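Reopening this ticket.

The earlier resolution said the output was attached, but the attachment link was broken on my side. Pasting everything inline this time so it's all in one place.
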Amino acid sequence: MHISSGDPRICMPRTSSDNKRYGYILGLQRIPYGRYGDKSTMHERPPVLLQHGLTLDAAPWLLNPPNQALAFMLADKGFDVWLANTQGADSSRRHRSLSASDPAYWEWTWEQLAAYDLPALFNYVNKQTGQKLHFVGHSLGTLTRVSTPLVRVAIQTYMAEQFYIHDLRGFPPLGQLEQTMQTVLCMHPGVECCNRMAAVTGPNCCISPSGLALYSTSTKNVVHLSQMIRSGAVSSFDYTLPLTDMQHYRR
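Inline output:
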């Protein structure tokens, strides 16, 4: 599933990073009022930004019935709800100068999402509403570590690093290579791959995977997360070569 404007309450503005060299154009969805609210008080509603997790878009906030989906529940409780989408998702695939087929398009990790995307989203919502906003994040949205058996095997085998070295910048890779990757990972003892979402994020009580679309993230992002899980610390991306690290971080 991807988000459409089928619900009359959902608006679909766009914003972009304030850093023009970074250049990603992000899709936002907005639910400015609930089922029971007065539209005339829309400008008084406190804004809240919902940030999705790894390889997803904002759809999981909307998949359940209105009385069980957080986005609609917040709107019904009087909030002005904004739904963020990370680059790689369908509504956030645009860039000022790159296409998603360009390897350079995928040269980012959660660090850039935090440094550029979140401030751009915060600033946009603040300018539109004139209010400080609340924030809700899930999984990568709050840098929660993922440690399911599938993820542990992928980290232990340095799979993302192998893809990155061979210039496969979108993760997971598409086509036959993705099927081969799944076969290799899922043959390990203890790895259950029948439910792809649960295999990556762990058991889920409340969302049916049948209506959920998974999108690409950057291979570099998966490498970065793998580095942190192996080291047990939140840190900047390690380019492994001291000279390369110095060129990127000027230290």
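Reporter confirms the inline version is readable. Residues 1-9 have pLDDT under 50 and may be disordered. The radius of gyration is 19 Å.
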